[in-house]
Amino acid sequence: MRQQHLLHPTLRDNPAEAEALSHRLMLRAGLIRQLSSGVYTYLPLGFKALRRIQDIVRQEMDAAGAQELLMPALHPSELWKESGRWDVYGPELMRLEDRNGREFALGATHEEVITTLVRDEIQSYKKLPVTLYQIQTKFRDERRPRFGLLRGREFLMKDAYSFDRSAEELDESYQRMYDAYTSIFTRIGLNFRAVEADSGAIGGTDTHEFMALADIGEDTIVHCPACKYAANIEKAAGVAPPLAKAANQFAAAEKVYTPNTTSIKQLSEFLQVSPQQIIKAIALKADGRPMLALLPGHRELNEIKLKAIIGATQVEMLSEDEIASELQSVPGFIGPNGLSHIPIIADQEVRGMTDAVIGMNERDYHLVHVDVSRDLPEFTYRDLRNAAEGDRCTRCGHELAFTKGIEVGHVFKLGTKYSEKLGALFSDEHGASMPMIMGCYGIGISRVLAAVIEQHADEQGIVWPHTIAPFAVHLLTVSMQDDTQRNVSEDIYHTLTRAGIEVLWDDREERAGVKFHDADLLGIPLRLTVGRKASEQIIECKERRSGKQYELNVLQLLAHCQSFYSTND
């Protein structure tokens, strides 16, 4: 490709609206342009890199035995209502009506569509197992699109779905996809971790997220440096350090006046106690039913864990009026005593607390010197909180580490969640009708592109992994007015192109400084500069990642380029 004809409008300065490094660099390097909030056009360089990612995904999915198809992006509402997700999925589902008033949704995910297809086409166990996948644009009405391609309203995704006859077969399909994802992200060049996760609105049981490690990531990854344990903060469990012995652990519980202490901070300062000594009572309603969750004052409630424990779809805080009517209590002074009519679940760390502080369900009063086993009713104890700094690994006891990550892939075991609701049944070898056992497996293709740039960049610009670089070689001619430089460049360009090496030739009438600046910004792995030694058939080479520079004879270039890429495979 001759660069003078390439559509790549570069920017010298960082766009003010771009917070993430990947967003800034993709705009500056002319990879993308915004059409509206969360919606982007991929320009030629960005689209070529995107296609490279798709090629790797297809190769690994095909090698794992999956078959590619393409499903509609426009979904009739009847399918989503049949699965029960039309009302549950939430405002992120983009809904519309046709001219006849029939409701549709733009595809945010395709469980309903694929299940219906397989239901209608496969009835016998002899046609199972089968795994089908597509690469297609998805639509979600994000409340706050941000970070460029990392959180948009329209994005490119690979989604795959497996259909098996048994849980054992699903385990095999799941492992094949897990292994395929590991190969995909390794080949692409991501620094990633596979972590235990929550299935969210998709549903299902066992699930792993593949996280690209990056400071800009919106997910917190909890992992153990000593063993292989890793989980999203939504799922992570940790063992808290042992509680220090309370100074007044044998003192009798006492009612005290605590005016205007409606927060943990205010109460801690008023009583001169640490937040660890306070038992925080959180008044909630789970699927419309009131309940109470108890945690140490310095801990955060993990609603994902709570939903899983009680089997709730929605959990939200009780309003002040609801606290008064349902609990006969006051916000900031809530406690479990006298609330036997509602479910109460306590975090495991609450068990055994002594000399603790808790609300009395009376404005401006708390109970101090509380011994949980002595002064409070019996509770159900479960892991309700987010893992926190200082926690120990539940598997090996080593201190846990915390880092940020970008979710680039997710694999789920769906079981029969969709096949039962949508009637995807098969006849087994005995003629019995059985629901298909399903799994689903997603990769955010466009998000992967952004994640790669987050990890592979420096002060000058992008540093492409060679596997997904838009071009293999960046050929730069210092002066197109120099006949020797131009002719030598022309010969190199045709020699490499005929050998199947994709070359971007900077043949623009620009100053050398502009060309070198743009070359670093675009980040193609190997740069060949034809300059003042062209008459001697000497070319300067520069490796973008290492910065290594050296000279080669023109006759050595083809072998060197082939060796450079084979060595880096």
From TrEMBL:
<keyword id="KW-0436">Ligase</keyword>
<comment type="subunit">
    <text>Homodimer.</text>
</comment>
<keyword id="KW-0963">Cytoplasm</keyword>
<dbReference type="InterPro" id="IPR033730">
    <property type="entry name" value="ProRS_core_prok"/>
</dbReference>
<dbReference type="Pfam" id="PF03129">
    <property type="entry name" value="HGTP_anticodon"/>
</dbReference>
<dbReference type="InterPro" id="IPR036621">
    <property type="entry name" value="Anticodon-bd_dom_sf"/>
</dbReference>
<keyword id="KW-0547">Nucleotide-binding</keyword>
<dbReference type="InterPro" id="IPR007214">
    <property type="entry name" value="YbaK/aa-tRNA-synth-assoc-dom"/>
</dbReference>
<feature type="domain" description="Aminoacyl-transfer RNA synthetases class-II family profile">
    <location>
        <begin position="33"/>
        <end position="465"/>
    </location>
</feature>
<keyword id="KW-0067">ATP-binding</keyword>
<dbReference type="InterPro" id="IPR004154">
    <property type="entry name" value="Anticodon-bd"/>
</dbReference>
<comment type="similarity">
    <text>Belongs to the class-II aminoacyl-tRNA synthetase family. ProS type 1 subfamily.</text>
</comment>
<dbReference type="InterPro" id="IPR036754">
    <property type="entry name" value="YbaK/aa-tRNA-synt-asso_dom_sf"/>
</dbReference>
<keyword id="KW-0648">Protein biosynthesis</keyword>
<dbReference type="InterPro" id="IPR002314">
    <property type="entry name" value="aa-tRNA-synt_IIb"/>
</dbReference>
<comment type="function">
    <text>Catalyzes the attachment of proline to tRNA(Pro) in a two-step reaction: proline is first activated by ATP to form Pro-AMP and then transferred to the acceptor end of tRNA(Pro). As ProRS can inadvertently accommodate and process non-cognate amino acids such as alanine and cysteine, to avoid such errors it has two additional distinct editing activities against alanine. One activity is designated as 'pretransfer' editing and involves the tRNA(Pro)-independent hydrolysis of activated Ala-AMP.</text>
</comment>
<dbReference type="Pfam" id="PF04073">
    <property type="entry name" value="tRNA_edit"/>
</dbReference>
<dbReference type="InterPro" id="IPR023717">
    <property type="entry name" value="Pro-tRNA-Synthase_IIa_type1"/>
</dbReference>
<dbReference type="InterPro" id="IPR044140">
    <property type="entry name" value="ProRS_anticodon_short"/>
</dbReference>
<dbReference type="InterPro" id="IPR004500">
    <property type="entry name" value="Pro-tRNA-synth_IIa_bac-type"/>
</dbReference>
<keyword id="KW-0030">Aminoacyl-tRNA synthetase</keyword>
<dbReference type="GO" id="GO:0004827">
    <property type="term" value="F:proline-tRNA ligase activity"/>
</dbReference>
<protein>
    <recommendedName>
        <fullName>Proline--tRNA ligase</fullName>
        <ecNumber>6.1.1.15</ecNumber>
    </recommendedName>
</protein>
<dbReference type="InterPro" id="IPR006195">
    <property type="entry name" value="aa-tRNA-synth_II"/>
</dbReference>
<dbReference type="InterPro" id="IPR002316">
    <property type="entry name" value="Pro-tRNA-ligase_IIa"/>
</dbReference>
<dbReference type="Pfam" id="PF00587">
    <property type="entry name" value="tRNA-synt_2b"/>
</dbReference>
<dbReference type="InterPro" id="IPR045864">
    <property type="entry name" value="aa-tRNA-synth_II/BPL/LPL"/>
</dbReference>
<dbReference type="InterPro" id="IPR050062">
    <property type="entry name" value="Pro-tRNA_synthetase"/>
</dbReference>
